[in-house]
Amino acid sequence: MANPPPATGARLMLVFTVTPALDPRMVEAAVRAGDVACVVLRTPAGEKLDAARLAEIAGAAQRHDAAVLLEGSEGLVASAGLDGVHVAAGPALDSALRLLKPAAIVGAAGLATRHEAMIAGESGADYVAFGALAPEPGEFFRVRDLVEWWAELFEVPCVGVASSLDEVTALAEAGADFIALSEALLASAGEAPKVVAAAQARLVSGDDAQ
Fold first, then answer.
1. Prior bond to 6 cis, omega within 30?
2. Could you tell me if 87 and 71 are in contact, meaning their C-beta atoms sit under 8 angstroms apart?
3. How many Cα atoms occupy the beta-carbon half-sphere of 19 within 13 Å?
4. How confident is the model at residue 207 (pLDDT cuts 50, 70, 90)?
5. Can you tell me the distance from the alpha carbon of 153 to that of 114, in angstroms, rounded to the nearest whole number?
6. Which of 24, 46, 114, 125 is most exposed, with minimal Cβ within 10 Å?
7. What confidence score (pLDDT) does residue 6 get?
8. Among residues 47, 61, 56, which one has the least CA distance to residue 19?
9. Contact of 86 with 69, CB cutoff 8 Å
10. Residue 76: in which H helix or E strand, if any?
11. What pLDDT does 206 receive?
């Protein structure tokens, strides 16, 4: 990427669902509002995605050096010009690693246990992600504990999913390499760029305090 990541500290990932209402201009503004490494695009349940629509949204983020990953299937990565996938551990991850590596990014998603994480990390995934992209209430404490455990022991980057700005701070303190801002958090203030800027401010103030 043209803009190198900070020497220390977490970078942001943004989560959006590809609906007719998703505006590429808003995605671009959100990416520009902080140190955003990656955008993860989700597929609405039961719907098929159009490669041209994906390419339009992806381009808005990629022109600012953010990678764009698709949750789930690897089938549209090449045709839509995406950078890779965010895929559940198990057979889907094995398939994506076989088909996409080393040309594309393959992240292991939604890991809920230490055992799952270690298997995913050993498989060759580019990162391990703890927590669902749409977290359930009460899930965060387990996610934070897994991030803290992983960060102390392993070199493969880890991702924690945050649903509030306080969770952003907690994940940074736990040692997350990347913090994914859930879609609910990005919509919480009405404007995703404002949320991204606020999350980035949490990370910067945390670095200053160290």
1. no
2. yes
3. 8
4. low
5. 11
6. 46
7. 38
8. 47
9. yes
10. none
11. 64
Amino acid 149 reads W
Kindly state the tokens that stand for 8. 């220390």
Give ∠ CA 61-62-65 in degrees, rounded to 5: 105
Alpha-helical (H) ranges within the chain are 24-32, 51-62, 77-80, 91-100, 114-123, 140-153, 165-174, 183-186, 192-209
All domains of the chain, ordered by start, with CATH? 11-209 (3.20.20.70)
Burial of 95 (0-12, 13-18, 19+ CB in 10 A): middle
Q: Are residues 161 and 141 in contact, defined by beta-carbon separation less than 8 angstroms?
A: no
Q: How confident is the model at residue 156 (pLDDT cuts 50, 70, 90)?
A: very high
Q: What is the per-residue pLDDT for 208?
A: 52
Q: What is the mean pLDDT of residues 34-61?
A: 92
- Please name the residues in contact with 54: beta carbons below 8 A apart, sequence gap of 6 or more: 18, 41, 70, 76, 80, 82
Average pLDDT of the chain to the nearest whole number: 91
Q: pLDDT tens digits for 159-170?
A: 999 999 999 999
Asked if 171 and 185 touch (Cβ cutoff 8 Å), the reply is no
C-alpha–C-alpha distance, residues 131 and 170, integer Å: 14
